[in-house]
Amino acid sequence: MPNGAESLLAMVAAHDVEVVFGLPGVHNLAVWEALAASGIRMIGVRHEQTAVYAADGYARATGRLGVAVVTTGPGAANTLGATGEAMASGSPVLVIATDISSAVRRPGVYRGVLHETRDQRALFGPVTKAAFNVPAADELPAYVDRAVRTALEGAQGPVYLGVPTDFLTAEVEWGVRSATGERPPVPDLSEAVELVGKAERPLLWVGGGAARSGAGAAISAVNDRLNAPIITTYGARGISDHPLVVRGPVHAPVVGALWDEADLVVAIGTDFDGMMTQNWSQPKPRALLSINIDEAELSKNYPADVALLGDARHVTAALAEAVPVKKAAVDVERVNAAVREFVRADSPEAAVFLDAMAGVDATIVADMCIPGYWLGGFHHVRRPRGLAYPVGWGTLGFGFPAAIGAAVHGRTIAVVGDGGFLFACGDLATVRQEGLPLTVVVVDDGGYGMLRYDQQIAGHAITGVDLTRPDFAKLAESFGIPAVTLDGFGGLAEALTAEGPNVVVVNARLQPPVNTSPRWYRTTTG
Predict the structure, then answer these.
(1) N or C: which end of the chain has fewer CB within 10 A?
(2) Cα angle 25-30-31, degrees, rounded to a multiple of 5
(3) 3 phi and psi, to 5 degrees?
(4) Cis before 501 (ω within 30)
(5) Can you tell me the distance from the alpha carbon of 28 to that of 102, in angstroms, rounded to the nearest whole number?
(6) CA 483 to CA 208: how far, in whole Å?
(7) pLDDT above 90: percentage of residues in the chain
(8) Closest Cα partner for 257 from 231, 224, 288?
(9) Residue 180 class from Cβ within 10 Å (0-12 exposed, 13-18 middle, 19+ buried)?
């Protein structure tokens, strides 16, 4: 009879998981020992936060479940920041953490067992969609199945699964994967069609929920009839190649005007978060049609005139067959040209950077850093899931470790600052060990550039933001990874033609773009 670790991996594999990310510990070694016969690839990382960031990056790049396996206590606690980012961004991630043996656990008593936490699951409550403890060894496969389905079905998000270490070596029968849950039916569209029929200047606002649903083709289809400008949020960049996609953020005045002038906003898979709406200083739409799989998100930040509860892809596809054909009221080509000119006038150096990135055929993973903000706002993403950006929780240090997960899927470029890269630079060892097709672009501006800017515009002394850094090229080379150093972005396009793994260090300082809160052009509420 198989043991618990073997049954756990068999159930994970039954859900089409091909790769997991993790760090071994004394309590989870049975999982590592069972991996050889499981057919699952384990990417061994150097810190537990990397395991979850990488699982998140993999999920964002592929649309599949990302899985992290970590050990008890401090190992589990180390994942919390990365798990919170996955939660804020709606990423389907399963965090499997061992717990102390059920044989020594005494309910309500902290006994001082190695790695013991009074309530490990409770740590994950605020940063997960759901958190489960496996109550008995023979229930392990069923709980794995439940956790996977919870992460993937409905509004996606991370799930915690706690497994007492003794369950991994107990005899446990194979489990049976449950049937996939039924998707919600398409709601009645009559009120939505009527609302669309009245509109003369409709606007599509497409969010990360639409991207996770795979709604790109449906969005293109509905807009072949509406002929409206399409504004995508950070989580939806690249979702559609429709010619009416606006290539800039709503924070740029020429794009913000589209919102102001629209007489109907069709919101697909979005919650209108503060970062996209400049803390809701954008005025309430004259009319709002909201499509979302999560009922709580339909009218959370702007009240919807018509709310359609359901999967973004299926509801939008049905809407495409029902709405009337509209004549285009906005010249999106002119808007996009104006955006390009705006960037060149606002920051010529950023324009050079964006031009260098424009020809890249790779998934881009950006950190919370000034070059990442430029990419999130103004980079033309050419394919679905082509950009991962941690604006959900604003998690500095996301970019490099998340790119490790994306690179398991294919060619990836991480764009990070010198400060954020130092959070997880030890995982260059993982990149080298696994031979991942990853290029890390480290833009070195001498510290926390965004925070330095915040202090400067506030008239404060520059404090705590200028950092001592290593020679990043030599650091990469010490791991056996080729590296080059550039002064400015002039040679970046050529440097990006090299196959990874490699590191490109760019010594440069950029002004933050208008999609960063100090430069929001509307009057903000916070």
Answers:
(1) C
(2) 85
(3) -95, 180
(4) yes
(5) 14
(6) 34
(7) 93
(8) 231
(9) exposed
**Distance between alpha carbon 148 and the CA centroid of its chain, in Å?**
18
What would the two tokens of residue 424 be? 């997880």
Inter-residue contact 510 to 370 (CB < 8 Å) = yes
Look at residues 58, 47, 104 and name the one whose alpha carbon lies nearest to residue 81.
47
Tell me: the pLDDT tens digits for 505-514?
999 999 999 9
- The CA distances from residue 418 to 60, 102, 414, in Å, are 24, 44, 12
Residue 194: closest CA among 305, 28, 104: 305
Burial category of 108 from C-beta neighbours within 10 Å (exposed 0-12, middle 13-18, buried 19 and up): exposed
Mean pLDDT, the chain, whole residue set:
96
Q: Is 124 in contact with 95 (CB distance < 8 Å)?
A: yes
Q: Which tokens in the block code for residue 318?
A: 């049905």
| CA gyration radius, the chain | 24
pLDDT tens, residue by residue, 32-89 = 999 988 999 999 999 999 999 999 999 999 999 999 999 999 999 999 999 999 999 9
Q: What b/e string do you get for 370-397 counting C-beta neighbours within 10 Å, with b at 16 or more? A: bbbbbbbbbbbbeebbbbbbbbbbebbb
Buried b (16+ CB within 10 A) or exposed e, 140-149: bbebbbbbbb
Q: Evaluate whether 504 touches 260 at the Cβ level (below 8 Å).
A: no
Please give the pLDDT value at position 332.
Answer: 97
- How many CB atoms neighbour CB 26 within 10 A? 12
Tokens of 207: 């969010």
Residue 216's pLDDT is 97
Work out the pLDDT band at 108, boundaries 50, 70, 90. Answer: confident
Phi and psi for 57 in degrees, rounded to 5?
-60, -40
**Single-letter amino acid code for the residue at 446:** G
Q: CB neighbours (10 Å) of residue 185?
A: 11
Handedness of CA 390, 393, 398, 404 (dihedral sign): negative
What is the spatial distance between Cα 445 and Cα 448, in angstroms, rounded to a whole number?
8
* Closest to 371 (Cα-Cα) out of 250, 469, 511, 483: 511
Q: Are 186 and 313 in contact (CB under 8 A)?
A: no
- For residue 335, give the 3-state DSSP assignment: helix
Q: What is the pLDDT of residues 476-500, one digit of tens each?
A: 999 999 999 999 999 999 999 998 8
- Name the one residue in this structure whose structure tokens are 């080379």: 477
- Find the mean pLDDT for residues 98-103: 94
Q: Which two tokens stand for residue 362?
A: 């790779």
Q: How many CB atoms lie within 10 A of CB 207?
A: 28
Q: Quick one: three-class SS letters along 37-91?
A: CCCCEEEECCCHHHHHHHHHHHHHHHCCCEEEEECCCHHHHCCHHHHHHHHHHCC
For residue range 201-243, what is the model confidence (pLDDT) as tens digits?
999 999 999 999 999 999 999 999 999 999 999 999 999 999 9
